[in-house]
Amino acid sequence: MATIFFKWFLVLSLLAPKSVADNHPIFVSVTEIEYNATDKTLEISCKIFTDDFEKTLRQTYKGKIDLLDAKYKTQMSAIISDYIGRHLSVKANDKPGKLEFVGFEQEEEGITSYFQVSNVASVKKIEITDNILYEYKKEQISLLHVIVKGERKSTKLLNPDDKASFNF
Looking at the predicted structure, is the pLDDT value of residue 4 above 80? Predict the structure, then answer.
């Protein structure tokens, strides 16, 4: 879904007048959480438009922010881990999960960061707080997808709403 959305946005940006493309009309992040029963982990990915993410990180952190230059990868990993850790939280069965940063990569027009929550024996309920980039744009949208044992549930959060709950 995220890939289709980002391709659609690219086409819109190329076809739209320059002023519309420069002020792109949509501000969205996509967070996907999948339960891996074998490893007993929640595998989490967050996809965010690169330009919006860099602008937000520049407002929040001092120093050079460049998510695309490989020579800054270690520094950017620490910053991404900190930022997402402050703006995304997950509870499984009413137990808070500790986000462990796995890494990040550029995909199309976005940055996808990866996290996991370990030691999750089973999942009956997942509660998410997601306010990624909410301080950047009041129009920010968070799309959430949660997959447990092949069952996928999704929702959309509109800033300032930042909480969602899924029962399986």
Answer: no
Question: What pLDDT is attached to residue 156?
Answer: 98
Give the largest Cα separation in the chain, rounded: 51
pTM reported for the whole predicted model: 0.85
154 Cβ neighbours under 8 A, 6+ residues apart? 143, 144, 145, 146
Helix (H, G, I), strand (E, B) or coil at 53: helix
Which region holds residue 52: left if phi is over 0, alpha if psi is between -120 and 50, else beta?
A: alpha
Q: Are the C-beta atoms of residues 115 and 102 closer than 8 Å to each other? A: yes
Tell the burial category of 166 from Cβ atoms under 10 Å away from its Cβ (0-12, 13-18, 19+): buried
For the chain, the structural domain boundaries read: 27-167
Q: How many CA atoms lie within 13 A of 134 on its CB side?
A: 17
Q: What is the pLDDT of residue 108?
A: 87
